[in-house]
Write a structure and sequence with these properties.
Layout: H1 11-21, E1 39-43, E2 53-57, H2 66-86, E3 98-104, E4 111-113, E5 118-121, H3 135-149, H4 157-179, E6 189-190, E7 205-206, E8 215-216, E9 220-221, H5 236-244, H6 246-259, H7 264-275, H8 286-300, H9 303-315
Helix pairs in contact: 2-3, 2-4, 3-4, 4-5, 4-6, 4-7, 6-7, 6-9, 7-8, 8-9
Bound molecules: asparagine (ASN) and zinc ion (ZN).
Asparagine (ASN) binds near residues 111 and 140.
């Protein structure tokens, strides 16, 4: 049985190989104006050499390949979200080029950030659709780049689950921003567009109800907890980084929906301030992150926001 939230298969190996192959990317230059993204989309043509052949770059018209155009549009929407809401110009806040490879591997059922670029598989068509379908997943991968260059949260155990959760939080907010949805209107699902009709489930993960995203004969049941009482101690998946991320995911959901309005207006700023907070060290655990969100809520907002943040964490069993 393969946990859908793990979704990394033997990605440790693949990610490593991909990283070594990705040394041609330095030739792509940053934008100097901060007004547009600098996107470069590549086609791996079902191989695993990265980045592959460049098929669409910034300003080029649409091409005759759905996944290429989706990667281009979704990376653009993610860039705009970070730029317009957090005044961040790309992954490094210095106009870094956004490199995305599509049609990676054969029936590859995942997407990832390899330290230099984003990579998207096509799925197998039976369970998964191409991973460019889901804006929240594209934004999730880009956010791994932001986290790597800011807090640098270590990718195991609680700091790894925080790293994963931050990608889901900014992925969900990007999709909500793009659809102009309030916290109350949003479905808080991650990757809803990826599952085919044959799967008994709604999405890869649910921030509103972790553990409820799918229950399928092939995939098994969504293993995510939404409370510290159900924290999963496991050696798999780097200590359950895609599993226990349900806990901070649900805290963010509780806070954003309690505050109402758009999630990025208050909860999102608290999370972004915390991600950039120099006190957030690479080995931070949930409680440390939670305390910093309270402090950042205090710095930026009023007591209503501070209370909502505190109560959100208490709702998942963390007393900051
Ligand atoms: N899609 C996964 C993620 O971004 C890939 C992985 O586990 N490395 O977390
Ligand atoms: Zn991730």
């Amino acid at each position: 049985r393969r946990a859908l939230t793990t979704l990394n298969l033997d990605d440790g190996f693949r990610g490593h190989a991909a990283r070594r192959q990705a040394d041609t990317v330095h030739e792509y230059h940053a934008t100097d104006d901060g007004e547009t993204p600098q996107r470069h989309i590549f086609d791996a043509r079902h191989g695993m050499q990265l980045p592959g052949e460049e098929v669409r770059s910034e300003g080029d018209p649409e091409v005759n390949d759905r996944e290429v155009n989706e990667a281009y549009d979704d990376l653009g929407a993610t860039w705009r979200f970070f730029r317009e809401i957090f005044d961040r110009d790309s992954i490094d806040d210095d106009g870094m080029a956004l490199l995305g490879t599509v049609h990676y591997g054969q029936e590859y059922q995942n997407a990832f950030w390899n330290g230099q670029q984003m990579v998207f598989g096509d799925g197998d068509g039976e369970i998964f659709r191409p991973f460019t379908r889901a804006l929240d997943v594209v934004a999730h991968e880009l956010t791994h780049g932001v986290t790597e260059l800011t807090a640098g949260l270590a990718y195991s155990n609680q700091s790894g689950a925080l790293n994963e959760s931050i990608s889901d939080v900014f992925g969900a907010m990007t999709a909500q921003y793009s659809a102009n949805q309030t916290a109350g209107e949003a479905d808080w699902l991650i990757g809803a567009e990826l599952l085919t009709e044959s799967v008994q489930g709604k999405a890869l993960r649910s921030m509103a109800q972790p553990g409820s995203a799918y229950d399928d004969p092939v995939l098994g049941r969504d293993p995510q907890p939404g409370h510290m009482d159900e924290y999963v101690n496991t050696a798999e998946d780097n200590g359950g980084v895609h599993i226990n991320s349900g806990i901070p995911n649900h805290a963010f959901y509780l806070i954003a929906t309690a505050l109402g309005g758009y999630s990025w207006e208050r909860a999102g700023h608290v999370w972004y301030d915390t991600l950039l907070d120099e006190r957030l060290t690479p080995d931070a655990d949930f409680a440390t992150f939670a305390r910093l969100t309270i402090d950042n809520a205090q710095r930026r907002f009023d007591e209503e926001v501070v209370s909502a943040v505190r109560e959100g964490w208490q709702g998942v069993g963390i007393n900051p």
